[in-house]
Amino acid sequence: MHFAMPPRKTSRPPPYAVRNARSSFNPQYLIPRDRLRRVVLAILGFLAAVWTLRWMFGGGGEIGYESAVAGSGAPVVIVTVFDEKADKGWVGRVKRNREEYARRHGYATFFNTTSNYNIKTSPLSWSKVPALRHAMTLHPTSTWFWYLDSTALIANPSVPITSHILSPAKLEKHMIVNEPVVPPDSVIKTFANLKGERIDVVVTQDREGLSVESFAVRRGEWAKYFLDAWFDPIYRNYNFQKAEGHALEHIVQWHGTILAKLALVPQSLINSYAKGADPSQQGHYKSGDLVASFPGCDKGGKRSCDEEMKPYFEEIEKRKGAE
Amino acid sequence: MSSRSPSPRSGGWSSPGLNAPYDTGGRSSPYANGGAHNVSWASAQARSAEVKGHTAFNPRNNGFFRKHFRRISTSLPFSYAEKEKLGRGRPQGNRFTEYLTHIGRILWRMRLRVGLSLLLILSIVLFYVTPLHRAFRRSSLWGGGNKFVIILAANQGGGVMEWKGPREWAIERDSVKNKKKYAQKWGYDLDIVDMSTKKRYAHEWRESWEKVDTIRNAMRKYPHAEWFWWLDTNTFIMEPSYSLQSHIFKKLNQVTYRDINEYNPLNITHPVIAEYLDPETRSPIGDGKPNSINLIVPQDCGGFNLGSFFIRRSAWTDRLLDIWWDPVGYEQKHMEWEHKEQDALEYMYTNQPWIRPHVAFIQQRKVNSFPPGACGEKGDDPRIHYQEKDRDFLVNMAGCEWGRDCWAEMYSYRQLSNRLNRNPWEKFKDWIGDSMKKRKQEKEKAKKQEKEKEGNH
């Protein structure tokens, strides 16, 4: 049997025929599958690259003159400023005292005279502040800058200040916390929870207040702030009774960003008084202390630094001979 | 006749191109013929289904609509059947509909592409209509708006010293609204602070010294923000379409200058002459890198201007804010420092070298344009005064409370800003309105002239 014409198509579509795939969304019809995959990969790759670049170059910290070299030089620079009119022999002896100590422990020294800093009409003792800044400029690779007044001697050169006092652990151990900044009853007290590595200035206190004969400052941005704020002309012209000493007490008590970086250590560690002012309880010089200080011996009158220091120089020499 | 029958009579499966109009008389449908040719419709269908391999009987038209479709459709005021008869498959109607159907056909053919692009447009519209774009601009990953906080001083000098009148309230309302809108637009934070004069210590008024405390509070309040933009009450953001990022912070090195000698109304010696200082402090531009900038200050004709300035969260800023107010400085200088914290900052910049490497100055007109009346009556100093054609970012009506009309200035600048920032549709409407007005005026003028002429005759 044959048909002249092909069988008639049903006029009704089968109820469950496959639906036309084109009517539903399928990106394959836009772009072939492998090309689609390539495009998606390229977009993802581009985004990843952008993010990595942002991450790498987006968050840069403060990069300045500082970062390259800090900490690679001498750990401590001993800073002393001499009065121009002082006796040359005595100045030489004091300088030698520091140089020997520095040589022994690998430290550096920085000496200058008061006249090199333009203090104008203010007391010359202010020159210690720019001197510290000066030392930091000249020794950009050092960490600690120890100001030791010309009226003080290193009496026991065998004690290295870095490991005995300035290391974070030692600072935390020695730090006097919750102590009135100005004795006996200042309402501003030293902070109780300071970390040793966060300390940027180490000072001592005698019976009258903060002592500025011997203190150490850590180099850094904070040090610039501290020294510049301290050296502000308003304070220099203010007639503080003890000049920079009172100015220091003032800024420490009024400005939290300074107090938060300050460690108060027992006077005997870096500033034992041998003669002169009234020390704190443990502040009297005893044999073996790192520093013997003669505050005010350079102020003239009946006192003479050279004579007061003589027995100490001799003892130091004797000990050196013994070693 | 069964109504369940699949006859075309009630279902109406028209086949286009089939010439036989099944509606009219003449030939009848196979079913209606009964068994005229001994072929019932059902049997033919069954056979056909056998060939196709599908089950035969499949009544589909048992709903009300299907049952009565014909009656309904014929009762309508127009008849498709008629049309079809007349049209004979040729396009119907006039040229316009022809064109429309052509377009429709093209669109249908390109439905995928068209759909995709419509989707794209829709998502763009949605992005800007919903708060999504704000979230985008705010996120630290994309827009970075959450890095900025605007600190707006409200109630300046108010409180104890004087009561606010309606004008002061209006000024404040406008100013706050302006900043709110701006901050919201770009995803910044806005901190409105009450600057009414307070006694901090029992013995002294520290009006406007609270700036320092206020900035510190804001830094505590928004711990993730980096830059804080201080704004006085009497300021108005003229161009809300400028983001801080694109206007300033993405090109910090181009828009700011570190060396104050570029514009130095105070004649400050720069860099500091002191040999003992380190090279960075003595450099006229600090380290020259944009990320060492912690304070951005504009300078007006008299020196620093703290009506609109930027300060960045950093250890340096912490120190600056701490040392800014000092009792000894205050005691010594408060009579001399008329602008208080502004003078104090100038003093510190001059005398404390540690500050300089981290301060940058910005062109006054970038963030703090003055209206005429401040720094010169004429208002024509290209460094200082607002220029409409340059679309300056912000106007600071500095000193308007001393003998000028703050509210009038605020109002006029608000109107100007609105006018400058109209959208195209508003511009179009205004253009029509303006041209109508003009024509009216011209007509009136012409009339007047005619009347005058008549009068002269």
TrEMBL record, chain A:
GO terms for biological process: protein N-linked glycosylation. GO terms for molecular function: alpha-1,6-mannosyltransferase activity. Keywords: Glycosyltransferase, Membrane, Transferase, Transmembrane, Transmembrane helix. The chain crosses the membrane at residues 39-57. One of its GO terms (cellular component) is mannan polymerase complex. InterPro entries: Glyco_trans_34 (IPR008630), Nucleotide-diphossugar_trans (IPR029044). Belongs to the glycosyltransferase 34 family. It comes from Delitschia confertaspora ATCC 74209. This is Alpha-1,6-mannosyltransferas-like protein subunit.
TrEMBL record, chain B:
Residues 1-17 have a biased composition (Low complexity). This is Glycosyltransferase family 34 protein. GO terms for cellular component: Golgi membrane. Belongs to the glycosyltransferase 34 family. It comes from Delitschia confertaspora ATCC 74209. One of its GO terms (biological process) is protein N-linked glycosylation. Pfam families: Glyco_transf_34. GO terms for molecular function: glycosyltransferase activity.
